[in-house]
Amino acid sequence: MHQILVYGDSLSWGVIPNTRNRLAFADRWPGVLERELLRQGHLARVIEDCLNGRRTALDDPSKPGRNGLVGLEQRIEVNSPLALVMLFLGTNDFQSMHDVNAVQSARGLGSLVAAIRRAPVEPGMPIPEIMLIAPPPIQIGKAAIAAKFLNAETKSVGLNTAIRDVAVAENCQFFDAGDVTATSEVDGVHLDRDQHSILGTALAVSVAAVLSLAQR
Predict the structure, then answer these.
(1) What is the pLDDT of residue 213?
(2) 3-class secondary structure per residue, 20-56
(3) What is the DSSP letter of 61?
(4) Please, are residues 134 and 176 in contact by the beta-carbon 8 Å criterion?
């Protein structure tokens, strides 16, 4: 059994755009991924650790626990053995309260990679493969979250390239979600139900390749 940890934010938690409701597991991309892997014959369990508002390595001054670096090593230890950790973060780094650019956000992901690799897993358990997923480009924020993501569509330009550079430098897998889907037209930030389906199905191809290599 291959255990896969999805470490993400609301784009993976499955918030329905412009609501506080959540898609069912079968409709969220991690659930779609698990279903597709099982359909392909891979014994896989997808574990979700997805927190609304989670950043890469930044603090939210009003909500504790949103810094993705804090406690990550323990999450790796808790869920081991892991074949793969999928990091899908970056969008919340561009909330209006933060003054960061794409390169700085991607460096935050680099610090998460280091934390995963130094996590105190039990002797004989593997250090998992890591996949960095670049979020689809943020559009102009709309509806209830417009003020929260003011100018995020400008500040985040180049995030996919910056994350790809970190993936290459750190010898991680890379997937650009923007190659297969886009953010919702409803709020400009999250994913609609059909986008979750598209993303999970596309990711299954890349993840299956990683799992096949691990079996050799």
Answers:
(1) 79
(2) CCECCCCCCHHHHHHHHHHHCCCCEEEEEEECCCCEC
(3) S
(4) yes
Q: What is the pLDDT of residues 104-163, one digit of tens each?
A: 999 999 999 999 999 999 999 999 999 999 999 999 999 999 999 999 999 999 999 999
CA pair distance 42, 60, nearest whole angstrom: 38
pLDDT in the model for residue 52: 98
Under-50 pLDDT residues of the chain: none
H helix and E strand count, the chain: 7, 5
Place of tokens 């886009």: 182
How many other CB atoms sit within 10 Å of the CB of residue 7? 24
Residues near 108 by Cβ (< 8 Å), separated by ≥ 6? 55, 56, 57, 58, 68, 69, 89, 90, 93
Phi, psi of 40 (to 5 degrees): -80, -5
44 φ/ψ angles, rounded to the nearest 5 degrees: -140, 145
Show the tokens assigned to 158. 């180049």
Query: Is the separation of the CB atoms in 156 and 189 below 8 Å?
Result: no
The pLDDT assigned to 140 comes to: 97
Buried b (16+ CB within 10 A) or exposed e, 126-154: eebbbbbbbbbbbbebbeebeebbbebbe
Homologous superfamily of domain range 2-214: SGNH hydrolase (3.40.50.1110)
| Total-model pTM | 0.98
Most distant CA atoms of the chain, gap in Å? 50
DSSP conformational letter for 170: T
